[in-house]
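Form 7-S
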Amino acid sequence: MSAFLPGLAPPLTVSQLNRQVRELIESELDMIWVAGELSNVKLASSGHWYFCLKDAEAAVDAAMFQGRARFLDFKPVDGMKVEARARVTLYEPRGKYQLVVEELRKSGLGALHEAFEKLKTRLGAEGLFDPDRKRELPLFPRAIGLVTSPAAAALRDMLSTLRQRAPMIPVILYPAPVQGGSAAPRIAAAIEIANARGEVDVLVVARGGGSLEDLWAFNEEIVARAIAGSAIPVVSGVGHETDFTIADFAADLRAPTPTAAAAAASPDREALAADVAALRRRLSRDLQRILETQSQRLDALARRLLTPAERIARQRETLTLHARRLRNAVAGRMELHAARLKAQRTALGHLDPTQVLGRGYSIVRDADGHIRHTSEGLAPDAALDITFSKGGAGVRVVKVEKSV
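Output:
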């Protein structure tokens, strides 16, 4: 049994000491950014990352737990220069101080984040992102425009979605690179070309996910102003659900992914067909109910018929009047519902590509089955396939004329 001098506090246990030191550190140091180089990077089976953050003169251990690590858009490796937003704490079992990392980014991204916030604030102050400027998307666009890279996986996903939802609506690609130094002005130029041609009723500006640097073209002022100045409503579908760009704020609608953007820009053919079928069923039920009601009225009137012949004749006149009213009511109701059904059929017919072909247009595909919109890239004697409203033809190019 230990003995203590009178008036002195008993000694702390090691765990008590470490707990007090941890509480002292956490109360004195708020969340901070620390820059350094990664070393001894390890990924545990739990999904937690452990590493050392060092510079030329010192090092500190750090941990990034799975709940935050899942938001990383890059893989940490030894030697990588990073900036960590972290809490300073003490790992009590070993009495070793460490960083608990909440956010990790490659060095230099801090300047990009700052540039993003500055541009967002400036354009927002101009009213470029005001909700009042946002326009409704057309319910039945005559054509849908896509501004993206022809090589992007996002393009394949969007085309697949559009084929499923609205195969009757033409899709026009306005190609532009979506990454690199020249991407932003070429994206803006593609938006302006789409507006100048007036071929589509809605534009989708999109690319798949990536790092902040990969998506940076969509944070450029020239792209934001092109989207805001577009006479055609614009849907932005850049990156993943957690990614936000300046283009998202400028667009009429922000979709979380390119696939969602394609869905937002197109009507759902199956849903439209279901609506028409529901209206048809409702019309049938209404007519049946009218006939049953009027039949019951006729039965009641018939039961009131009495002799002598004069009363019968008078009731016959009344019956004739009711029968006429019945016919007029049924005919009027049928005309009303027939008009509604016709309107629905007309609306659905507008989505039928053969209607467009019937007005003299045709679809031209090259030997690879791609739809051709211009003569660019065609060579004499190239094989083309033409689809008319009725039938088609295989042709060969005799002469190529460039558009002016």
